[in-house]
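Note to self: keep these together.
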Amino acid sequence: MRAAFLLLLLCCFRFTLFAQTARLQGTVLDAATHQPIPFASVGVAGRPFGTVADSAGRFRFHLPDSVQHPVVVSSVGYAPATVPTASLRTAGAAVIQLKPLAQRLGTVTVRPGKVRTRTFGRTSSSTLMTARLYTEPGLLSDGLGKEQGTIVPLTLDCRLRDVHLFVAFNRFRAVTFRLLLYRVRNGRPAEPLSHPDIRFTVTQSRGWVKVDLLPYNLYLQDLKEVAVTVQWLRSEAQEGNPKAFGLAAVPLPGHSIFTRDKSQARWQETAGYLSIYFTADTYQTSRNQPTANEEAAADTPENYALPDSLQYTRFVSQSGLPLTNPQHYGSNPAAGHHLHVRGGRLYYERYGKGQPLLLLHGNGQSIAAFQLQIAELARQFDVIALDTRAQGRSQDFTTQDFSYELFADDVRQLLDTLHLRRVNILGWSDGGNTALSLALHHPEYVGRLAIMGANLFPTSKAIEPAVLAQFQRQLQQVQSRSATSTETRLVRLLVQEPHFTLPQISPIQAPVLVLAGQHDVIREAHTRAIARALPNGRLLILEGATHYAPQEMPAAFNQEVLQFFRPR
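Structure:
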């Protein structure tokens, strides 16, 4: 009887599930020739639903019945068509015809003068985070059409020669992409630029991919910047390999990675800088005439490798270490938990057994930042890895400014919920600042502290001046778009917080291991001053490392941390 009831319940559930979705399918044709349009984009306006047609113009995807937004079908070189979802639900296999756009030839002016080939974008291959593009879940709910890119500055008069992107990892046999260019409005991709359909296939597992743009004659004028993206069109899986692909990136507030799941979905923005760059022939015009100093500077090798917008990466490792996060730290449902706190909802994961050890990541990061530490630490400790408010999977429901006191109070509420006191804490960057705040305001919660790349105040005495100036410029940029967005508040935190003093931290009695990289963004004199001011402070400068030492030299970093936290 019980089995029959469960079978009936399952049947009802399946009926309800299928009754709530409909499969939309059809073929996209050229209205003039009636030939299929390969890889046309199909997406629901403003929503993350849709797909990409195959090489024969055929498409299919599932859409919840509750979604009534129209479907937009588009392809490079054609006028997009808007189709009501109701007509697609009743049409069976629909035929959608797109009208070709008239291709207006641009004026080519031959003029004397020097043509300079320059580089625009991020030329470094360092991989301190990865921008995951696609993990194929199946045919009924595919990842086709996912798009990802960044904004690249340009001169006002240039011809694009090629584009380069660095593949951090590719587990597929082959992946085909479409390259797309957009105008930029309010710091985000806006309307697409008119250009031919540019498709390319990636077969290598890692490294730079170059796409030759000269055959497409992409001559751009009056654009100070352009959004460049790649769109996933199709893939061929490699038997025995996980289906995953990621581009190299570094966490860099003020620069953004833009992603959308389907061609008509809203753009999602993440702080970071993708390894994508153009080489372009630039022309000197009355609108774009460099000064003598600018012209001389443009010829120096360091300006090709490191434009002004990337001064921060002087202090970032160039090792190119790929971080693939195969254990899915930060998105592991088996280890994940949620906790409601005042004005927010925290996400944390728990691993191992032993004394509690809390991990606090840096600004704009997540639990995944500790992917090279968690397994090692969990062999000896009960590791509690927390996504800080408004970062990772943790949420913030307010518009108030962030502060380390606020983050420390979130930690206090978490430890109260878990009935924990005297917890060991490993804090990296902003996480170290939060740990210091907790030790100052709630010392009864703190056992031993290890702080990596922490600072007491946001001035040039504590932070490398070039980096601080970059953060200040970034704050101006993001504030011009929104004064209360998460991105703005996180950058503002870097520029305006914390407000500790050396005498203020001297009452902290907990043993503290003060770590920093030899080439850290935190000035070595400041790190040494922190260690001296703490009654039980111990200093460790990691030779050859930067602010990202936990990812650059995980074995040495983990050994030092384990030795410090190991029960006495």
